[in-house]
Write a structure and sequence with these properties.
By secondary structure, the chain is mainly α. The protein is built from 11 helices and 6 strands.
């Protein structure tokens, strides 16, 4: 970053850093043959918008040229919003704010889907580490962000100040990105403030702070119903492979019946008497 330029955190500067940490793109020859890696700038912006608003409708082939222009203007801090950019004081942003404050796990899951698809988190490239370092450096140098400004950048959903965040040694990638993206959408609606930063951006000299950047691991939480004891009967299992057996390979089933009643018949016109134990018959004189 040039020393005579005031660095600004905003949507465009944030998006630019995300693109720098993008997975490897396919080559020009593959693109020329009609292949697509799904990692274009518009693809990435659609996915980032869906972190804020999962129900966002993707541009159609007929509207894609307009969205592509919106993407370029947003990335270069020439526009704050557009026909297909639901930023500013919108229902999408308000809904995302509520999600972050009351259901942080959902926001983390959305960001996890984004990072899994677009960002290179391989240990050999260290793009995730460089991304976090670049953003922390940008936040640190942005004097318009007060030291007590809050970022919801911890896995448990707790807000942390700028001062604490920029001094952290252990960073969860997805929680960090949720916190920064949320701060931008709520506190930096004017994306054009980053125009000078984009125009004068120079490679960082290197971040001096050692960071441990790790990925959020989503864990399934068992429901209360699953923890309840099973009913006092065995589950009936249907063996679908029974039809494949030949007719002469019938399974034998042995059934044990306690206290059976046995009927014995004597003579042609005898009386059937069930065996119920010992029966004593006393003949009269």
């Amino acid at each position: 970053m040039s020393n005579n330029v005031h660095p600004c955190l905003c949507g465009g500067t944030f998006f630019m850093q995300l693109l720098n940490a993008r997975k490897q793109r396919i080559g020009p020859r593959q693109k020329y043959s009609g292949e697509s890696d799904g990692l274009s700038d518009p693809n990435a912006l659609v996915a980032l918008i869906k972190v804020c608003s999962p129900s966002y409708t993707e541009p159609t082939p007929s509207t894609f040229p307009t969205f592509k222009g919106n993407t370029s203007d947003f990335k270069n801090c020439k526009a704050s919003s557009g026909t297909y950019l639901p930023f500013g004081d919108t229902g999408e942003v308000r809904s995302f704010d509520e999600c972050v404050r009351t259901n942080y796990g959902e926001a983390l899951s959305r960001m996890l889907a984004f990072t899994d698809t677009f960002l290179d988190a391989e240990k050999d490239t260290k793009k995730d580490e460089y991304l976090v370092e670049a953003l922390i450096e940008l936040i640190s140098e942005d004097s318009s962000i007060e030291s007590d400004a809050l970022f919801y950048a911890l896995e448990n959903g707790t807000a942390v100040t700028k001062e604490s965040l920029t001094a952290s040694a252990d960073i969860c990638l997805q929680a960090f990105l949720v916190g920064v993206w949320h701060y931008i959408l709520l506190q930096r609606p004017d994306n054009k403030i980053g125009r000078n930063t984009i125009e004068n951006w120079t490679p960082s000299k290197g971040f001096t702070q050692n960071l441990n950047v790790y990925n959020y691991i989503e864990q399934a939480v068992p429901s209360e119903d699953a923890e309840e004891s099973a009913p006092g009967y065995e589950e009936t299992v249907i063996d679908d492979s029974a039809d494949d057996r030949s007719d002469d390979r019938q399974q034998n089933t042995t059934q044990t019946v306690n206290n059976p009643v046995v009927f014995n018949q004597y003579g042609n016109n005898g009386i059937q008497i069930g065996s119920i134990g010992t029966l004593n018959i006393k003949h009269g004189d």
